[in-house]
């Protein structure tokens, strides 16, 4: 019995020791949790209770080179649900469906989803202020109307293919909006609150607001004024020629900046769903590939001059065709141009003459220049969807392929490759990477964050050769096939192109792509303009369709850019049917009788006022106008403001 008591006491003592140890361990653990981990666990608990309502950052604006807004944001309310706080999902869905003109079933699924918050979409996204006020007035538990942003394009369809557009979540889908989506988007913020296990707001909890970080503003190289000039001419070409499509690009040849880029048919970025998908998912100036035709001859010319394989004063005879390895390659002019210089070969766009240039260069050297000018690979312009074009592999180039490549047949290029290469040919030989982004700015302070510098790819030809190319192409406009791009007072250079389209693997006899590339002033180019018209109805020659299109763009662009006219312009060669440009004489101080008796008039006269002496005239003396234009003279018996009687001119 005594031994049994001893055993019991020992057991009780052991239990006491163990219990004490456990108690001390629990005390230490509790102290550790409360004192050491207390703050961390409290934060974790709060995180598990906290619910966030996202606040969208404002998407960065897109500006033209002068600061004009091309795309910006407008406030657009959005309906959001907090499912845990909704007391009667069925009734709430019914009321929202009626207000938003949406499916009750769809809204009910969104209200009962297992999430802390959910958008009522698509009907509740980016609604009007009036509709937002109506829903707020319903005071539905668990339904909030938060501010969202909607993209707005104030100029409608202007520069649509460059800008692109955004989706329902303000995410970039095409164009610049997609290319620079991350930087334009910014970083979203939130409004957060504490909620219990049922998702209901905890008594006494306060909301926390995390301010969103707005996206940066992007300035483009695009000039909205030049873009408007270009699109006006594109619209007129569509109406006049009824082509499949028409494209144009304007570039600053000295740095690769795109001043304007457009195509037709077009679309409005803010309403893109109303247009056929092919209108907005292809940016034709960088996507379209086609045989360039004679505009490609500029590359052959530049290479032949650089390698001193041709002298422009050298004689050449064009019988109308040239035989190459059994193939007969014809000139566009039936019967040929006969005796001419190589200068005239370029002016007349004579195919046999360019075949000879290509033969003198040889395939290795010609294709070396073609690749150095950037053909056969993407230019790297900062827009999505650019194509490579197609070149012959040098190993598969025979005498015929060499000959046809020399005058732009059998190869495939993109418009952006064309204008980039020709810009290098006329700017002193420097190939620049084309780009449309110019600079990033802080949306709050307006301070410059980053500026895109011109990127020189390589020197392709020498300055001396480039000068020869400019002068030769100026002669093409003054004396040759580019005459319809001539602008009085400005030195314009350029080249026409007319290429048969390939339809079902064969050259079409009736469908063509006609083009023209021009630059001015020819002595110091400030702008290069390229235009191509796909299958114009009726007339199908680049000199008759595309050259006037480029002239219309370039003439107003030069004046807008305040480029001063040149005094040493090459005289234009007039042919039958052309209207001459003449200078308005000074008629002030003369009588009507003297005007008719002493002058060989190239003008019509319109008289205003009474009296025997001209005291003023419109246009003013020295103005250059088309022959046959009307001069309005203002008559009076008073002396004219000028002293002395002017002589007839």
Quick description:
The chain has about 650 residues and is an alpha+beta fold.
SSE diagram, text form:
Elements: H1 2-36, H2 38-49, E1 50-55, E2 62-63, E3 69-81, H3 89-100, H4 104-111, E4 118-119, H5 129-138, E5 143-152, H6 160-163, H7 175-179, H8 181-185, E6 189-194, E7 208-210, E8 217-220, H9 224-241, E9 245-251, E10 258-264, H10 277-280, H11 284-287, H12 297-306, E11 315-318, E12 321-324, E13 327-330, E14 338-341, H13 342-347, H14 351-361, H15 363-372, H16 399-406, H17 415-426, E15 430-432, E16 437-441, E17 448-451, E18 456-459, H18 463-479, E19 493-503, E20 506-520, E21 527-534, H19 542-560, E22 581-583, H20 592-598, E23 604-609, E24 613-618, E25 624-626, E26 630-636
Parallel strand pairs: 2-8, 23-26
Antiparallel strand pairs: 1-6, 2-3, 3-4, 3-5, 6-7, 8-16, 9-10, 9-21, 11-14, 12-13, 15-18, 16-17, 19-20, 20-21, 22-25, 24-26
Helix pairs in contact: 1-2, 3-4, 9-19, 12-14, 12-15, 12-18, 14-16
């Amino acid at each position: 019995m005594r031994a049994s008591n001893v055993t019991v006491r020992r057991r009780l003592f052991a239990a006491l020791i163990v219990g004490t140890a456990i108690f001390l361990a629990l005390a230490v653990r509790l102290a550790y949790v409360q004192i050491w981990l207390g703050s961390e666990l409290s934060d974790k608990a709060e995180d598990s209770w906290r619910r966030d309502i996202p606040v969208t950052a404002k998407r960065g604006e897109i500006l033209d080179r002068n600061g004009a807004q091309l795309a910006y944001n407008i406030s657009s309310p959005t309906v959001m649900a907090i499912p845990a706080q909704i007391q009667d999902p069925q009734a709430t869905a019914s009321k929202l469906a009626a207000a938003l003109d949406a499916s009750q079933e769809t809204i009910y699924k969104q209200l009962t989803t297992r999430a802390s918050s959910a958008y009522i979409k698509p009907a509740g996204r980016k609604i009007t202020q009036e509709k937002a006020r109506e829903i707020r007035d319903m005071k539905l538990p668990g339904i909030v109307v938060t501010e969202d942003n909607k993209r707005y394009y104030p100029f409608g369809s202007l520069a649509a293919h460059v800008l692109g557009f955004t989706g329902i979540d303000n995410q970039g889908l095409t164009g610049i909006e997609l290319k620079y989506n991350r930087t334009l988007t910014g970083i979203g913020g939130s409004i957060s609150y504490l909620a219990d296990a049922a998702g209901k707001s905890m008594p006494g909890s306060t909301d926390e607001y995390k301010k969103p970080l707005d996206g940066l503003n992007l300035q483009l190289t695009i000039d909205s004024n030049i873009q408007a000039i270009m699109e006006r001419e594109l619209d007129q070409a569509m109406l006049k020629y009824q082509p499949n499509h028409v494209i144009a690009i304007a570039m600053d040849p000295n740095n690769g900046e795109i001043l304007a880029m457009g195509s037709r048919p077009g679309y409005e970025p803010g309403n893109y769903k109303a247009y056929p998908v092919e209108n907005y998912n292809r940016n034709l100036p960088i996507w379209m590939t086609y045989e360039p035709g004679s505009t490609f001859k500029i590359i052959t010319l530049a290479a032949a001059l650089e390698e001193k394989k041709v002298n422009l004063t050298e004689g050449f005879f064009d019988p109308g065709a040239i035989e190459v390895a059994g193939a007969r390659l014809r000139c566009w002019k039936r019967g040929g141009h006969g005796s001419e210089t190589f200068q005239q070969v370029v002016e007349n766009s004579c195919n046999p003459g360019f075949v000879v240039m290509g033969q003198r260069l040889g395939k290795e050297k010609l294709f070396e220049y073609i690749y150095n000018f950037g053909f056969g690979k993407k230019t790297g312009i900062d827009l999505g969807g650019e194509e490579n074009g197609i070149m012959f592999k040098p190993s598969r180039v025979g005498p015929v392929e060499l000959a046809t490549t020399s005058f732009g047949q059998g190869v495939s290029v993109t418009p952006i490759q064309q204008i980039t290469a020709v810009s290098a040919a006329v700017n002193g030989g420097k190939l620049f990477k084309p780009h449309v982004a110019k600079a990033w700015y802080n949306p709050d302070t307006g301070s410059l964050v980053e500026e895109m510098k011109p990127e020189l790819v390589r020197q392709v030809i020498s300055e001396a050769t480039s000068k020869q190319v400019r002068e030769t192409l100026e002669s093409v406009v003054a004396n040759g096939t580019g005459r319809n791009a001539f602008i009085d007072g400005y030195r314009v250079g350029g080249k026409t192109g007319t290429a048969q389209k390939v339809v079902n693997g064969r050259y079409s006899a009736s469908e063509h792509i006609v083009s023209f590339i021009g630059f001015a002033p020819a002595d110091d180019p400030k702008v290069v303009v390229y235009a191509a018209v796909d299958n114009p109805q009726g007339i199908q020659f680049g000199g008759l369709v595309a050259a006037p299109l480029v002239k219309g763009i370039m003439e107003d662009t030069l004046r807008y850019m305040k480029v001063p006219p040149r005094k040493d312009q090459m005289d234009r060669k007039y042919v039958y049917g052309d209207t001459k440009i003449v200078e308005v004489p000074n008629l002030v101080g003369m009588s009507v009788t003297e005007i008719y008796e002493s002058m060989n008039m190239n003008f019509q006269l319109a008289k205003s006022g009474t009296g025997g002496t001209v005291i003023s005239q419109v246009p003013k003396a020295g103005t250059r106008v088309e022959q046959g234009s009307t001069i309005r003279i203002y008559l009076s018996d008073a002396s004219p403001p000028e002293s002395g009687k002017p002589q007839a001119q």
